[in-house]
Amino acid sequence: MTQDDRRDTSKDHRIRQKVEHLAQAGEPGARLPRVRDLMTEFGTSQRVVQRALAPLIESGRIEARPGVGLRIALPSAEPPVTYSGDCLILYRGSESRLARTLLIELNARLLRQGGRIVMRAFGDEASATAFLATQGRFRCCLLQVNFETVTVEFLAAIKARADALVIDGVSVTGIDADVIGTNWREALSVGYRMLRARGHEKIGFLTSDHDARQIAMARREFLLLSGWEGPLPYPRLHAVPRLPGSYVREELEAALPVPDACRDSITALIVWGLVDGYLMDSALRNKGLRSGQDISLLLLGSVDVPSEHVSQFDIVGNSDAEKLDLFESIVMSRIKGSQIPPRTHYLPIYTLVNGSIRVLDATLDP
Prior knowledge:
Oligomer: single chain
Number of domains: 3
Strand content: 15-25%
C-alpha cells in the first residue's frame, strides 16, 4: 500500500465517521453535507468521498438522490417481524445420555420462564434444512451436534431463521454465535499433571478416534505431554472408533492392561468420553483389576454427575449444573434481544478425588 493509499484510507474513515455521527444525531429526512462540501472539508477527491459513503448508503443509513443530495434515511416501511417461537432447539440424534438430559432440563427451564420452545431432532443436515424451510423466524436457535461436522450452508440456513445462534460444544468456534463448552485439552493437562505429581510416568489415554477439532487436539496434547516423538500409533494412546458417550465395555476392556503387565505397560489411564462409570467398573472386574491398586484411573467428564464417576473414580472436568445455568442465561439473554457480541464461553475446570489414583513410590515403581 502506497503512502497516498494510506492517506485515502484514513480520510475514508474520518469522512464516514463524521457522516455517521450526523445521521445518528439528526432527524430522518434531514439534509447532510453535500459531496463537494465534504471534498473541501477533507481536502480530497470526489472518488474518495463516494467510497467513504458507500457502506452507509448500502446499509440504508443515508440516502443519495440526484438533485436532492444526501439525506438521513427515512424509517423503513417494512412490517415488524412475526416470530414462530422464542427458541428453536435443534439436536443431532446421539447416544449420549448427558447431551439429551441437558436439552430436556434446559427446555423445562425455558418453559418455566414463559418461553415458546420448539425441539427438533435430526439425523442429517438435509432433513434439518428441510424442516427449517417450513418454519417461521425464531429469536434464538440452540444447536447441539455432538462433535459432528457442521457445514457452512447449514449454519446459514439456521441464521436465516434465527436472530441468534447458540452452540453446545466448542468444536465450532470463530463464527457469529455463542459457543458454550469445555476446553478438554485443559482438563487433560490438569489430569496428566495430577498423575505425574503422584509418581506416574507410564500414563495411557483412552479417547475417541473422531477427527472433530476438540478430540483431535486432545490426542495431540496427550502426545505432547507424553513427549512421544516416534511414529504412530503410540502404544499408550487408545483411540476407539466411537464418539464420546457411546463407548462399550469390550472397548474399555481392550484398552486396559492385564494385571501382571501393569508395571511394564501403563500404571495410570486417563479416560475421556466414558459418561457411564458403571461400564468402567464392569470392565475392571472382568479384567481382574482394582482401581487405585492395580491401576490408577482418571476420568475426564462432569464432576457433579454421580453416574459418571460412581463415587469411585477420580475425575477432572466441568460442572454439569454450571453448564446448564450458563446455557439458560445465554439463551434467555438472546431471546430478550441482547446486543452483546457473541463469543466462546469456556467452562471452568474442577477436580473431584474419589480414590482411584494410587500414589507411586518412584523407588519401587520405576
